[in-house]
Specification:
434 Repressor (Amino-terminal Domain); mainly alpha; about 0% strand; 2 domains
Length: about 120
């Protein structure tokens, strides 16, 4: 299934008259690897954001969309926990373990709390 990142890549190719192979060559990977990333079978490599940004001269709006698409398309995420205290580590691990058991209402509440804290509202 094509990820959001894959959809953006496909649009970039269409807008630039390119094939999957053309973009893969620019990113210095095989077509099958690029396809696997676009379809969510592999994580988007860390350096691709900057490379795509430069290769396709993305606007600030397009760059923001690409960054969000990469984050949304990740299969795995590595967290550096050394800067967190034990209580914070425990909270993050509990959330990761239990998120699938939360109902949509609880997820919405947590999302709202996090969005408010990003805006400095509490």
């Amino acid at each position: 299934m094509l990820t959001l990142f894959g959809k953006i890549c496909r649009k970039l190719r269409i807008d630039n008259g390119e094939l999957l192979k053309d973009m893969a060559d620019k990113l210095e990977v095989s077509s099958s690897y690029l396809s696997a990333v676009e379809n969510g079978k592999r994580n988007v490599p860390h350096d691709w954001f900057n490379r795509i940004l430069e290769l396709y001269s993305l606007s600030s709006t397009e760059a923001k969309e690409l960054k969000e698409a990469i984050a949304e398309s990740q299969l795995t995420m590595k967290l550096e926990l050394d800067s967190f205290n034990n209580e914070e580590k425990s909270l993050m691990m509990a959330f990761a373990r239990d998120i699938k058991r939360l109902d949509e209402s609880d997820k919405s509440k947590i999302r709202n709390i996090l969005l408010q804290s990003q805006k400095g509202v509490r």
